[in-house]
Specification:
The protein has 174 residues and is of the alpha+beta class. The chain contains 2 helices and 8 strands, in the order αβββαβββββ. The strands form 2 sheets. Strands 4-1-7-8 form a 4-stranded mixed sheet. A 4-stranded antiparallel sheet has the order 3-2-5-6, with no helix packed on it.
Length: 174
Amino acid sequence: MTNLFRSVFLAFIAVSFFTTVSVAAEKGSIQSRTTQLKEEVIQLNRDLFELEESILHPANTQVAVFLSVNTKETFILDSVEIKIDGRIATTYLYRESELKALAKGGVQRLYIGNISTGPHKISAVFNGQGSNDRYFRRDKTFSFEKTDKSKFIELTIGDSRKLNEPEFSLKEWQ
């Protein structure tokens, strides 16, 4: 009886061991398959985003506007309003966390859209608080020629070297 009991017990342990190993292997393959599927979904999402960008904003009509802030303490940005050819393209209100990111060298894409080739005018209205708690509202206008290639324009807020005031500029990226 003891040998029979021992044999049954050993058989039970062996079956339990192999079942545990096969379940663990199956679980490992499920986890690896799940990880693989997640990676495929991320890649598919990236591909769809690129396709959407190329369909909605083809390179021959695309214009993008970016903002960078290179000012220490002469200006705290509240909002920006962008107009292209007199029509409002976008407006943006800033939170403190966004201003911190811009102050650390971040560049924000304010607008991306489509325009026809030819001459255009972009204007930006900057609102914020300057030194001595003085409120600023500055307009800056920039004329540019849209060709059959993408056009990238940067709005920059910087410190004036001569005055204790912010300096606003628009330039075209080459």
